[in-house]
Amino acid sequence: MAGIFKNLNSFFTYKANQREEFELLEGADEKASQENNSATHVESAIEERLSKDIGVNLAKIKQQLNVPKNQDILIREFKLEEKIGAFIVFIEEMADGTTINDFILRPLLMPEHTAEYLKRHKKGELIDYIWNNVLAINQAKKEKEFRNIIKKVLDGGTALFIDGYEECLLIESQGYEKRGIEAPKTENVIRGPHEGFNENLRTNISLIRKIVRNEDLIVEFLPIGKKSQISCAVLYMEKVTNPNIVKEVKRRIQNIDIDLVMGAGVLEEMIADQPYRMLPQILTTERPDRAAILLIVGKVIFMVEGTPFASAVPINFWECLRSPEDYFLKWHAATFLRILRLFALLITLLLPGLYLALTLFHQEMIPTDLLAAIAFSRENIPFPAVLELVMMELAFEFIREDGLRVPGILGQTLGIIGALILGQAAVSAQIVSPILIIVVAVGGIASFAIPSYELSFSIRLLRFGFIFLAAIAGFYGISAGIILLGVMSVSIKSFGVPIFSPIAPKTRANQDVIASLPVFMQKGRPDALNPLDRKKGGNPIRRWMQYKGGNKP
Amino acid sequence: MLRKWVPIIIYILSTMILASCYDSREVDEYAYVFAMGIDKGEDKTWRLTLQFPTMEKSAGADGGGGSSGGGGGGQQDEYEVVSVDAPSFFAAVQMLNTSIPRKLNFFHTKMIAISEEVAKAGEIGEMIAPIVRNRQIRRIAHIVVCKGSAEEFIKENKPVIGKNLSKTMELAFNESEDTGFFPHSILYDFYADMKSYGYQPVVMLGGLNKQVGKEVSKDRSGGNYTAGQLPRKGGRKIEFFGSAVFDGDKMIAELTGDETRMMLMARGEFERGFFTIPDPKSLELIIPIDVHLAKKPELKINIQGESPEIDLTIKLEGDILAIQSRLEYEKGKFKKELENVFAQHIKEELDRTIQKCRNLGVDVFKFSDTAIWQFPTIQDWEDYAWDKRFKNAKINTKVEFRIRRTGRQFRSSPIITSEENE
Amino acid sequence: MIKEGKIGQSEAIHLVTIAITTKVFFTSPAALMKIVGTSGWYVTLISAAMAMLGFTFIYLLLKEFPDRDLIEAYEKSVGRLMGFIFSLSLGGFILFTTSIRVREFAEVLKVYTLPLSPPSFITGIFVITIAALCFLGFEPIARFARLVGYVLIFAFLVVILSGIKNYEIHRIAPLFGYGLGKTILHGMVRSSGYGEVIILAVMAKSLQGTQHIKKAGFLSIGLSGILISLSILAYTLTFHYSVAQEFTSPMYELAGLIRYGRFFQRFDPIFIFLWSISTFISALVFFYTSISIYCKIFRIQDIRPIILPFAVLLFALTMIGKDSEDIVIGHVHIIRNYGWLFLFVPPVIALIAAKIRKKGLIESA
User: Fold this and answer.
1) Which residues span the domain enclosing C301?
2) Can you give the pLDDT at residue A533?
3) A483, C277: Cβ pair inside 8 Å?
4) Which domain CATH number covers C69?
């Protein structure tokens, strides 16, 4: 009772809103990016060649691979013969740990292997000696240029640097997870790769690294949960992604005070901007290729150990209507499909409500012949139209839920048989009219065309709201619902980015919203993300069109 | 956190409290009136006749699992016709609602039939007023003046092909565009034309065919009838032919099918129609021609004098449908001659129609639409009183005709028979 | 200060255009037709031109006080007391306009689709909806306007284009309606039909810069002038002038006459969506603006506690009119004919005062 009074009191008395909202502003990031880049951007003038001084080499490698920010890049420093400085660089997920431990480090750290050599020679050809006599590896080569070294490391190789040498040894140690990768379950495509994430975080990161082979891809690990520390990886592109977003994502993930975070779904709910609103504010995917595209565009991706999904922020609504298939189709097809999905969304949301409004309030709009058909079929039905509709909608939801619950092929059969028999029986028992079955079924079918599972779920729930509004005031009620839902939806922000962003509010570079332009015209990154690098393609992308008959000048 | 929810909770609660579904009605709570007839009733009342589907047969058939046969003769039973004498339209509706278990609904009314008696008495205005104000009756409902009693007319309003009355009516009205024998008159046009300072409304004429089968026609055009006179047998008893001319809300004359075509041509609303003229070379034979307007009629109007002077040029073009005499009308001199003869034929017909209407003092040709451009303000136009001056208007007509196509045959050669000498 | 968020130029244009254009769905076009007859379609263009002139003064005033909104500009230029009077009258006027728009909407809706529902039911849903949405602030309103703006304009053009079968060119004759003088005079008086553009000045801080306000203001007046003129032209072409003045909602009647074959007819109820969504947006933005003005006058930092009292006030205001005649002839007429007194005159006075004050400062210095 006291609680009620307290709440009522709080309702009538004024209390200022204390929560600081995170906003992504145009001006703010310039400063931040300057701060951030002052350190990293010097590297545009890197020296191509290795230095003789191992200290210089180490600093350069660290700078280029963003160590220690990049937490899955490992640098192991050691001494050869207790005096010659050396280190190896490799990426944890891409390289095979056993190879490195047993066949690279162990022989190198055994003094007896090199002792012989050092006694006999000056240290002139130490590298050759190591390769010829020490390492039990099938493939390696000497390299002098930083660029090639980094490329190899990102590919899963291990680089061995030894003090006093202007070259290093690139040792083959590629060994990323190849087992246990299955085709994605919910995001199937016809063209494009059939690889999905699994429950192992390392494997998942290696799947992404396999596609984005760039030293700017940063992987940071944050432990979450007090009682059980589950690791969460945050991935982003240095020099592309807006550092404010990264900071904010990390801030939110680090400041979760709970015993156990089980999976990405829980984490998403914990860090979403407006968890009370129904539209999804975080995009999940189980496809490494899609995650890679999202990364390149300038988003932050986080993955939780034990969840076969990657979650991307910030997103906009239009991305929820995009299926991975779109990337592999021509732009006409992709545009058509996207409009189709938007239409399906509207059908799912509004069709039952519209049917109800039409039959209860606006009979004049139904073509006379159709009206006669509806009236004839409703003649002997005892229920009011609202009840009839809600009953059938619920029955449909039951069938859908059962199809998930009942295992395997039986589930699908149950779905089809259930729908058919229930519909047929209900019609012939004159409990519902056949036209209503069509309405419910079309709405149900359309809901499966929405690619995002979360979005599809929200829309299905909201549909009941529209049924209610249509039942009390017809089209007017539906319009009130549209305005209510619409204004609430546009106020949602996903990590500072308004969810309907390229359209409302309008920002630049929206070549891929509903209508998808040809790939070679999509030059920019979404402006709403305020990326540090706004271009993702050259101008023009298809340079061969300009330089006829030869290579570029 | 609760503070955020309060508005939403208030919203849902209050809409629920407010929700009493005031206007919500199930589809099957209504009886949909498809056609409506207006007669004079006994003792200064109106007799309102309504036709609506009873939803009886089809529901039974559907429930039974779709036995599409439906029992041949039973089709008429699907529609019920009721009549009532009442002092006003709304009184009539209320009176009928007490006896009909469903609420009467006029959303889907396709036809409003007014008996000639009511139309000629000049009382349509009183009847139309409530109908126009009523939100249920659409302004695109068709309006018909029917000869004889509207009650009988509505009773005979039945589908002849299929069971679907609304489709039957729609398609029947659309024939106006194909033949030009009756105008396509909808409630809105009628209402607006009644209030116009210039032209006067014209309404399609409906009637019940006597089903005599033959009646000697006055000439061979095939259009010199009004509704109810067509020499035919079988089919629907209802027919639409010709038009009723109004002066304000009072019907003053009838136009035959041919005259209606002329009127539509002068208005520029003539879509297409088949004309039949006597063959200029052998008069006992005929040539049917499919005619349509080449362009909108050209009008030149001089308002300087006491009464307006109007020059009307109608440009027609057409395709030959048949040549009974098998003469080569497709080319050269003969073609020219045929064109002239046809133009002359139309001009005579047109002049006769214009003369008839001018004598009545009504501009049904919408000449006023062109004249109105010459007046800068509405006051000037209304002061000029076109409808009064039209009676003395001088109207010169000119008809041009061109044959465009000759159908599937490019040339016609005579039929060779053994009795050629005859 | 109040956190009202930031909106861009295109959001502002969509928002103001919707707010202005919505009135063509109600009785005003018929009322205009009654006064000026067939010349309505260019009368509104004259009004738009006049409104642009009025807006120029508002813009100049804001330019005098960069980074301030209209309310602060009033205070700075004509002093605290006069500024208070100006702002309060503006706020009151906008709230009154809101109530009239809601009531007009309810009346028209009641005539055409919900004849049995009491007006309090319709206005009740309306007021509750807009009050609930005001809690979200100004930014989402503008964003939503931008999101549905294209759809609304598309639907509007579809209605106008599909009526093309019913157009008869001679219906716009006589060209000067009831006389040229009357036409021009009414065109000037009815410039308050475009007065909604003042929202931009009140929300000046959200728009980030006077330059944006200028562009958004002129563009939205221009765009809505074209749209309103198009719609008046469309039903002048469809309805004879004597009939057109009789209708409760000419645009709705226009949609009702659209007929293509047996299936595509009687589609006017779908028009309710276009109609009610734009009314919702326009009433929402008016309502928010009036609350915002109130808060700015009394220097209240947060608008949310004010929303509920204002919603009650709005609901009460909508119930003042006795009958639809009272609303249509009385109140709407007052708003259209005398609105410019509240909308366009105070900025001119304030601008003159500001100039004098500035001159005085320079001379004394």
Assistant:
1) 9-364
2) 81
3) yes
4) 1.10.4160.10
